Amino acid sequence: MYLAPYLFYMNNLYKFLLLFLSIIVLFNSCSDSDSDDDISNVPLEPLKDQYVIENDSIIEFMKTHFYNYEDFDNLSLNSSVELIIDTIAGDNLDKTPIFDQVKTFTIDLIDENDEVIPHNMYYVINREGNGSNPTVADSVFVSYKGMTLDKTSFDTRKNPIWLDNTSTVRGFGEFSTLLKRGEISSNLNGTYEFNNFGIGFVIMPSALGYYESSTLSISSYSPLIFQINLYTLNSTDHDADGILTIEEDLNGDNIFSNDDTDEDGIPNYRDMDDDGDGILTKDEYDADGDGLVDDSDGDGVPDYLDNDN
Ligand SMILES: [Ca+2]
Ligand SMILES: [Ca+2]
Ligand SMILES: [Ca+2]
Ligand SMILES: [Ca+2]
Question: I need a surface site. Which of 52, 100, 183, 210 has the fewest CB within 10 A?
């Protein structure tokens, strides 16, 4: 049950990081139906009603189930434990229900009537980690297990991979920000391992997962469970314009596709000339090189977002 420590046979950490920088788009919260895995088109349920139904079922699930919390006691620094969830029954009647162990994290979603619908995610942090937290814009080096409420796993990665939080399902990226990265230590033989990395799991409604989309292993409107081990992370600048992606979310809603200063259809985090004035953002945000973002006309809008500076 204990996962082996992860050793990396690279002489050079930088090379190792570059090797894995090919970002894997594993999850996609968009409901594009061009995937071969999509097996049906189902009616689009109103967000508000669907949330109430799913939150009730998640709470019922947490009251009637426990996880292998005893296995997480006395974790060694460089290991994790695979999350196992089972029903409280028979020999397990004395187990503590998940409901008594979770904390709540709320994400506001906007429904079809522009109404804010707060969505609760329920989570347990088994080990916080020791470094910085990722943002929802960052790339994370993780192993994970994804499950539905019937306790079957639809996706398990025991060996860590890089994921781009802007491309994972919303709840996955949001939950990862509650974990801290681990420490990388090098061994005498040139290998690396991660110690004291963040470990936790989250239970989320389907609107933070795949919502009406379905695959062979995930039906429409399935709440999801993810266990995540967060080894390390990279801050991302998707368009390499010198402005970190997290800072290109101008309205701060953790969604990157809806910030488009020059309204050219290319969101700022993918746009190398954010204000469309013909000067690349990288040549404009700090032209005098003083380490401060320039605002030539002093109107409070930085030059790279100001097409009349
Ligand atoms: Ca945004
Ligand atoms: Ca743009
Ligand atoms: Ca940009
Ligand atoms: Ca510009």
Answer: 100
